[in-house]
Amino acid sequence: MAGAVSTLNAGNHAAVGAGRYQRNAATREQPWVRWTLLGLGLGFFGLFLVLPLVAVFTEALRKGFEVYLAALLEPDAVSAIQLTLIAAAVSVPLNVVFGVAAAWAITKHDFRGKQLLITLIDLPFSVSPVVAGLIYVLIFGAQGWFGPWLQAHDLKIIFAVPGIVLATVFVTFPFVARELIPLMQAQGRDEEEAATVLGASGFKTFWHVTLPNIKWGLLYGVILCNARAFGEFGAVSVVSGHIRGQTNTLPLHVEILYNEYQFAAAFAVASLLALLALVTLGIKQFIEWQATRSTKESS
Hints:
mainly alpha
């Protein structure tokens, strides 16, 4: 009897081992396939990501650090940097408020028009930035719907800072909301409902329950929103008027310098945008690491 049981156990172990081997074999590629895929991935990464970054910084520093620094401290460049910072400083907080409010409404409440709101949030992803800029020209331009009224009251939006801010807000407002909506949907409503039952107000529920749960997703959305605000070209180009020293952001200033064959200065200013991209990538990785660490500690 014991021999039969031993034989049966041995057969079961053999069957389990054979099944595990078959599953591993089915999911294991040949070495040449793995190396080919790895080579293609690294080649694509090097050709389309690393090489352009190296080229930007190489061309920026080709004539020496003094020329590089002079290009960044030139008055038009300083004005472009300041305007870019202003556009980002206004658009990012506005999008944070809108994104949090929209995500809260969509995920925590049921109401008519929810699907329409979600569609409107995705609108800047489906509309060309150039078209968005033309829409603002149509509305606020001299020949636009509100153009005569704005001229009568000596208000200027198009070819001025307000138009640049509006265009930047439009192209960047989906980022925070789109990061928070899936996260808050996955978390559900149980904790907020429990806090409400215990007598917490809406603000206290948000501040002490919802915000701690979404803080990493919110920071990630802010980083993406800020990066897009710094690098936006199409919509801002349409509404800016390309007035040097007044309505040129960093991307527009790079275009003007390059068209004027000031290549060293153009690449010097472009290196600031490239550096911003690298910093954004680093912060993104840090946020993802912190989010993963927090998840592991709480589980």
